[in-house]
Amino acid sequence: xxxxxxxxxxxxxxxxxxxxxxxxxxxxxxxxxxxxxxxxxxxxxxxxxxxxxxxxxxxxxxxxxxxxxxxxxxxxxxxxxxxxxxxxxxxxxxxxxxxxxxxxxxxxxxxxxxxxxxxxxxxxxxxxxxxxxxxxxxxxxxxxxxxxxxxxxxxxxxxxxxxxxxxxxxxxxxxxxxxxxxxxxxxxxxxxxxxxxxxxxxxxxxxxxxxxxxxxxxxxxxxxxxxxxxxxxxxxxxxxxxxxxxxxxxxxxxxxxxxxxxxxxxxxxxxxxxxxxxxxxxxxxxxxxxxxxxxxxxxxxxxxxxxxxxxxxxxxxx
Length: 318
Prior knowledge:
The chain has helices at residues 33-37, 96-100, 109-130, 186-199, 210-216; strands at 39-43, 47-52, 79-84, 86-95, 155-156, 205-208, 226-228, 233-235, 240-243, 246-252, 261-264, 269-274, 280-283, 290-303, 310-312. The protein is of the alpha+beta class. The strands form 4 sheets. Strands 5-15-11-6-10-9 form a 6-stranded mixed sheet. Strands 1, 4, 12, 13 and 14 form a 5-stranded mixed sheet that branches. Strands 2-3 form a two-stranded antiparallel sheet. A hairpin with a 4-residue loop joins strand 7 (226-228) and strand 8 (233-235). The model has no long low-confidence stretch (mean pLDDT 90).
């Protein structure tokens, strides 16, 4: 039925207040599992260094004569390693007018923008640490050697793929050519776990992309989904893997390369922040009718001993 003649309708009315919710919705991921799990160190120079030590090989014929004179055994020297501190930064600028008007969903526009920039900076850092296939460089702008530049000893590659030339952050991975990748298999995983254990490592986490997380859930013991009728629930995922060499958590990481499966001993990796330069926010010079602020971190990756970790590389991603 039509409305009566001369009824004022919403479409023709002037002066109706807008109805804008005070909640702002976003779904962009901000979880950074690798950086969050890493221990933290303090760097006092832009070239942050540490040492590793290896023991002599076990000798099953260490049998000595009674009363024998003792000669010193050969000394195994430490290995000195280092990584370069990298600067990552985000900045925001908001006009004076925009800060003065009333807003929905936030009190101060500049504070809101800086909060977003901080979250974006965390995402950038996670990507730099675990996804960038880059070697360290001390020339400006300085670059850290990413995790992919360190993992060398315990790996499975495909086709033309190859490890970095040395496990010191100076090389990069060479990815297999297109068309030569292979599916991630439980046999690949077991090969790497065996190699890490023989080297002395105790891996506790596996980082995978979305496709390989689902692939992982088809491994032995979860080849068929389990229907729990009493709880009206179907379990078709693997979050932990009990291997012959210990229990590993399986963690999907949105920011790593989907072609990589990273098998790590968590306490053998750390993030070192230059002293006083961890998520530092500061105002920028005022050059007009706007306010500007920046937030930065100056940081690097510490590979305490890459032989405790490994990876399956050049996997299919679809």
